[in-house]
């Protein structure tokens, strides 16, 4: 994956944003209603073709009031990386989610620390596009362990909306 600062993100209302632009938008979104509780989550999906695209969604929810999402799409050049089966693709989805979540969590924490605001938010979940039913059920323990080893808690289907709904729309 490219350096996260070089990635381009998409929001349906705002269009194309940089990494720092996404941080600024999330901060401003929470700043407008600072007494509310916010939950920030990351999830990824992938297409099932030979050269899959990996849309990664960062979702900021204002509890009970909707939210905003920002999306980047990772695609590897031919010969750079191959995914021979769905198991490898699912692990790559989780890896990309963890990598982006770690960078976003640190940047958002730093942005809030440098402000005089006290914002009520949590950034502890990564949504994985796996579930107890279907072909991914045997991967639950492995995926949850990978997410936990990166300092996050895992959500799987049907609770994994950032991966199975938001990112899925762009895969």
Describe this structure in words.
There is one protein chain. By secondary structure, this protein is an alpha/beta fold. It contains four helices and seven strands. Strands 5-4-3-6-7 form a five-stranded mixed sheet. Helix 1 (about 20-30) packs across helix 2. It starts with 7 loop residues before the first strand and ends in a 5-residue tail after the last helix.
Q: What's a concise summary of this model?
A:
The protein is of the alpha/beta class. It has 4 helices and 7 strands, in the order ββαβββαβαβα.
Give keywords.
single chain; 171 residues; alpha/beta; five-stranded mixed beta sheet; two-stranded antiparallel sheet; 4 helices; 34% helix
- Mean pLDDT level: 93
Q: How much of the sequence is in beta strands?
A: 25-35%
N-to-C order of helices and strands: EEHEEEHEHEH
Strand order of the largest sheet: 5-4-3-6-7
Can you count the beta strands? 7
User: Shape, please?
Assistant: globular
Please outline the major beta sheet: 5 strands, mixed
Question: By helix and strand content, what is the structural category?
Answer: alpha/beta
Distance between the termini: 17 Å
Radius of gyration: 16 Å
The number of helical elements comes to 4
Helix content: 25-40%
Q: Which stretches are low in confidence, meaning pLDDT under 50 for 5 or more residues running?
A: none
């Amino acid at each position: 994956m490219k350096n996260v600062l070089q990635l381009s993100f998409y929001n349906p209302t705002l269009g194309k944003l940089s990494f720092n632009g996404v941080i600024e938008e999330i901060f401003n979104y929470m700043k407008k209603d600072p007494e509310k509780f916010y939950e920030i989550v990351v999830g990824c999906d992938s297409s099932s073709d030979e050269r899959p695209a990996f849309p990664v969604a960062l979702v900021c929810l204002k509890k009970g009031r909707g939210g905003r999402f920002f999306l980047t799409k990772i695609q590897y050049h031919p010969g750079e990386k191959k995914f021979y089966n769905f198991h490898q693709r699912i692990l790559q989805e989780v890896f990309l989610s963890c990598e982006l979540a770690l960078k976003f969590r640190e940047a958002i924490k730093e942005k809030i620390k440098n402000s005089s605001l006290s914002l009520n938010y949590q950034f502890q979940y990564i949504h994985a596009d796996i579930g107890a039913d279907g072909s991914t059920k045997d991967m639950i323990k492995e995926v949850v362990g990978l997410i936990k080893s990166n300092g996050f808690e895992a959500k799987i289907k049907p609770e994994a909306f950032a991966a199975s709904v938001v990112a899925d729309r762009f895969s």
